[in-house]
Structures are given as C-alpha cells and as structure tokens.
Design goal:
heterodimer, A: about 270 residues, mainly alpha, B: about 325 residues, mainly beta, 4-stranded antiparallel sheet, 1 helix, about 50% strand, globular, Lactonase_7-beta_prop (chain B)
C-alpha cells in the first residue's frame, strides 16, 4: 500500500465529513448556542463569585466567564464527539461504515482519520466560540489562540476515541439517550470545567477525586493552560495517555456489523 | 514542546536578569508591621522591611530620598532612608496617624489625627509642631495642592472637607460631601480636587478656585451589591485623561474619564482595594488589596489587570519611587 493510497483515503474521509457538516450548517450554529448560553446566562449569575483566589495559569483575579470559557471549549468537543459516535451508529445501520471499512487500508488508520475529520469540525466551532467570547471580555493572550491548538486536537482525538468506543457498545440508535445521561453530563459536571478543583475539594473530597480521575478534567486543564501560554505537562500527559488507551480499545474492538438491524452476532 | 518551553523560560530569565534599572514600589502591610518592596519591571517582591506598628499611610519626600510612614499604633511617623532601607528618625505626629501629606516645600507635613479631631502640622527638618488645627470628627484623608496653597482634610463622621490655608494654618471653608470622605487628590495644575466618600459611594469633584462642587460621580458595578461599592483611594494620570478610583470591598477599580467624569470601565482586582499609585512612566498602576493581601498591577495602556502580587497581611498604602 503506497502513501498515495493513504492520502487518497485521508482526503476522502475528510471531504465526506466536510460534506456532512456542510449539509448540517444549522447544526454548527445550534451547537454553538449551548456553550454560549452557559457563558452569557449561567456565568453572568456567578460573575463575582470567583474573584476570591488566584489559581494558575491565571496571574490575577478573573471573572467567572473567563474561568469557564476553556471548559466550554471542552464541552463543544465533548458534545460533537458524542454526536459523532451517534452518527457512527447511524452509518453502521445504513451500512456506509461497512463500505468505509471495506477499504484495504488498515482499520486503525481509517478510524483515526475519521476521528481527525470530526475533530476539525469541532475545533472550527471552538474558534468561533472563542471569538464570540471576546464580547464578554474573555480575552486570552493573542498567541494563546495558536498555542491552544495542540490541546484542542488532543482533546478531540481523546473524546472521539471515547465516542468510537461507546459506539461499539451501543446496539441501537435509541440507546443514545443513555450516552447523554451516563457519559456527557457526568463527564462535564464532574470536571474542572465549571469549578476549580480546590472548590470541589472543599465541598467534598470524594467528589474531588472523581474529578481528578475524569480524563475530561485534564483535557480542560490542557486547554486552559495552553490558552494562557502556560505548559501543564500533567494535563497533557494524562490526556495523551488516555487517548492512546481509548484509541487502542476502540480500533481493536470496533465491529461494523454489530447491530440488531443487520442481525448478525458480534464477530 | 517541553524543550521549547524550557528555552522560552531560559530566555525570559536571561532577559530579566539584566542591570537593575527597575522602579521600586513600597507597600505598607498594616497587620505585618512591614513594608514590601516590589520591582516594577518584574512585578515581584524583592525585599521586606520591618517598620513600626500598624503602618498605613506612606509617602516619599520631595527629593525621593526618604519614605515617611504613619506607624498608627506607635503614635508616630517614621522616617525610612531609602538608600539603606533603615528607619533613621521618628517625628511627633499626635495620636493614631493614618494619612498625611507633605507640602511641596518638602518641610511641612500635615498629619490627620483620627482620635483627637485635629490636624497636626510638623516641620520635618526640626520636628517642631507648627500648628494643631481643630477639624471635624474623625479626620482621615489629607492632601496638599501641588501649588502649595491648600491643605485639605476629610473628616469621616462630619462628612466634610476642611480647606486649610497653608500660610495661616486656618480653615477657610468647609464643604459637605457624601458620607465618610476618605481621600482627596489634586490635579497637577491644582485647579481641580477629587474627593472620595466611602459610605456615600460617591466621588466629588471640586473647582479649587471657587471651592465649589462641580460634579458628583456615582458607581454601579454589574453583579456587585451597591453597598459594597465604597470609593477610597484616587489616582490621576498627569496628562489629565484618566482617574482611577479604588472601590474598596467591591474589589474593583473604576476608570474615569477625567475630562467628562464618565466612568469608562471597572477592573477586577483583589479583595478590599484601598490605595493606588502610578509608576514613573504611568504605564502601570499598582493597587493595594487589603483582605486578599496582594497588590494588583494594571496595564494603563490596555486598561487590563495583568497580575496580582502576594505581599504581607492587609496591604494599605503604596507609593512608587520615580527615581529608582
């Protein structure tokens, strides 16, 4: 198999994801509504609550809007990844996933390319969100917008791999509501996205440890630190490590024919 | 990636370790009985100096060689030699000195004595008490106009400004302002005076020639209860463009257009922001945040708070030496 084949396949998958995105432009906009509501409505009520302590990477006191912006970037990627998982179940039911996996190229390559393609759309949304956040005075340093890119790619790979892993478990489209309740919400709320972890620790130590074990916490911290031009090796390390584990589990476990509609038993 | 960060950090360290041309800020820590010395280039504490009990108001001599410190609980004003950073003298101050002001002649120090309802005028060259002027109840803020004609004292309980003629040491006029006036600041040309009223939540602008109030400024900060908006320290830029007002427990500094008296912005700083001072180039404004025990640094050009620096407990006053 030549590099040209890989490239051809890579471009094909990317293009398909863009076409899908282009046909669902309203979804792009509506996916932005959710984090913007959090930023503008929810955060407004807590505006003055957080100016109590200085935590890294911030150099001074910040408003609550500034605090939750990186967490909301993570939220955009989280929702998109889970939606991606949903679409993979859908693709599987329609059989287009099988068409994709019939390609002679290695399955891990195909799946990682698919994750990257989904990530590109998510990251586009994150940047639009960050631009809109300027309106409520969330103003990270200019270079932060560039420095945050590796963290965003890593986060979208990690959550995409998780989505893929979940897609291997979901037998039917209808089970997706469960993903919402048992994956998205716990991951988002039990993380440092909405509150700093020292606050969690004050409220309850066991909650603090749940947050510490939540990989989403470390993805959010990687985004937060790099957006403010600080290097957080622990957050990056954990996010990267979890990405590899999720990706290995997902690529080895993914079976396109494992659906009820198609009837077949798991291979 | 890590390598890149290391290189960047190294480059930054080399950049900062150049010759010490830094400006120095002095911060009085009310509960630690110390002064923190901050390098205004790196925004880091470089020294801590032991001083008398409960240091509050501090100011520089006009030749910038000495720092005067109100050691409130020692009932004295201490004189710190800036070259050696040692206390070299004390001045009689009357009881519980909190704020004071030095006449441009570099000799007459006007000290507000809160408990005795007087203003004491001391000649710093021979320690003579030149006058004790009866003012309103609980005198607090003290300012002398740059042209040396007026000394203004604020009395907290009487809610008044007392306009003292510096030739005769007599009060020429009393003006009523908002409740609990705290601080007075003159413009460079001595034509306008700004006075803050802590409980009233207002700042009053006076025309000095007529001694009439020409404007009152009110403050409203989104998300902060009105009773926490308590104006205290005031600092004016020398180009006459901006005024900064420390708003106490609201944890914000107001940026005011000094021409139109419109409030332009509120900047979030530490808890109970008290006094402020600009550095030599007026690039940075330092604020003391009593309850959070730190000093916030505001970039004046961008109007952004860029850093908060931990100092001692309950930082009260701040002055930046323009010659250092």
């Amino acid at each position: 198999m030549k590099a040209a084949h890989y490239w051809h396949c890579f471009v094909g998958i990317q293009t398909r994801e863009w076409l899908r995105f282009w046909q669902q432009r309203t979804r792009f906009a509506s996916a932005l509504v959710r984090p913007l509501l959090w930023l503008v409505v929810f955060a407004a009520g807590f505006r003055a609550v957080l100016g109590i302590s200085i935590i890294p990477p911030y150099q001074t006191y910040i408003t609550y809007e500034t605090y939750i912006a990186p967490g909301l970037c993570g939220m955009i990627i989280l929702f998109n990844s889970m939606q991606g998982a949903l679409s993979m179940v859908y693709d599987r039911e329609l059989g287009s996933m099988r068409v994709l996996l019939m390609s002679p190229l290695p399955r891990p390559f195909l799946l990682v390319t698919k994750l990257l393609a989904m990530g590109v759309v998510s990251i586009g949304q994150v940047y639009v969100f960050l631009l809109l956040a300027l309106l409520v005075d969330v103003e990270p340093p200019l270079w932060g917008y560039l420095a945050v890119l590796p963290a965003l790619i890593l986060t979208s790979l990690m959550l995409g791999a998780l989505g893929l892993l979940i897609a291997t478990w979901i037998k039917q489209l209808e089970n997706f509501a469960g993903v919402m309740n048992f994956v998205i919400f716990p991951m988002f709320f039990m993380s440092s996205a909405l509150y700093p972890l020292w606050r969690m620790n004050e409220a309850s130590p066991w909650l603090y440890w749940i947050c510490q074990f939540n990989p989403f916490t470390h993805a959010v911290e990687a985004i937060r630190f790099s957006l403010y031009l600080e290097w957080n090796p622990m957050a990056f390390g954990i996010t990267a490590g979890v990405t590899v584990v999720f990706a290995l589990l997902a690529t080895t476990g993914f079976r396109p024919q494992r659906t009820k509609i198609l009837g077949g038993k798991p291979a | 990636m890590k390598q890149a960060f290391r290189i960047a950090a190294l480059a930054a360290a080399i950049g900062f370790s150049g010759p010490a041309l830094a400006g120095l800020a002095y911060v009085s820590n009310e509960k630690d009985n110390t002064l923190s010395v901050i390098d205004t280039d790196t925004h880091e504490v470089v020294d801590t100096i032991e001083v008398g009990a409960r240091p509050r108001g501090i100011l520089l001599s006009k030749d910038y060689t000495k720092l005067y410190i109100c050691a409130s609980d020692d009932d004295t004003v201490q004189v710190l030699d800036l070259a050696t950073r040692k206390i070299i003298d004390t001045l009689p101050s009357g009881e519980d000195p909190e704020q004071f002001a030095l006449h441009p002649n570099n000799k007459h120090l006007y000290i507000a004595n809160e408990d005795d309802a007087i203003v004491t005028v001391v000649d710093v060259t021979n320690k003579d008490v030149l006058a004790q002027i009866d003012v309103g109840v609980e005198p607090e803020g003290m300012a002398v106009s740059p042209d040396g004609k007026w000394a203004v004292n604020t009395s907290e309980t009487s809610s008044m400004l007392h306009w003292i003629n510096t030739e005769t040491f007599e009060i020429e006029k009393n003006t009523v302002v908002g409740q609990r006036p705290r601080h007075v600041e003159f413009t460079k040309d001595s034509k306008i005076a700004w006075a803050s009223a802590e409980i009233g939540g207002t700042v009053h602008i006076f025309d000095v020639e007529t001694i009439e109030e020409i404007k009152q400024i009110d403050f409203q900060i989104r998300g902060v209860p009105q009773d926490r908006v308590q104006p205290v320290g005031i600092e004016l830029t020398s180009d006459g463009k901006y005024a900064f007002v420390a708003l106490g427990p609201s944890n914000h500094v107001a940026v005011v257009d000094a021409q139109t008296y419109e409030v332009l912005d509120y900047l979030l700083v530490g808890a109970r922001v008290w006094q402020l001072d600009l550095d030599k180039d007026e690039k940075f404004l330092y604020t003391t945040n009593g309850v959070s025990g730190d000093v916030s640094v505001i970039d004046v050009e961008d109007m952004k708070v860029i850093k908060s620096i931990k100092v001692g407990r309950y930082p009260w006053g701040v002055v930046i030496d323009p010659t250092s």
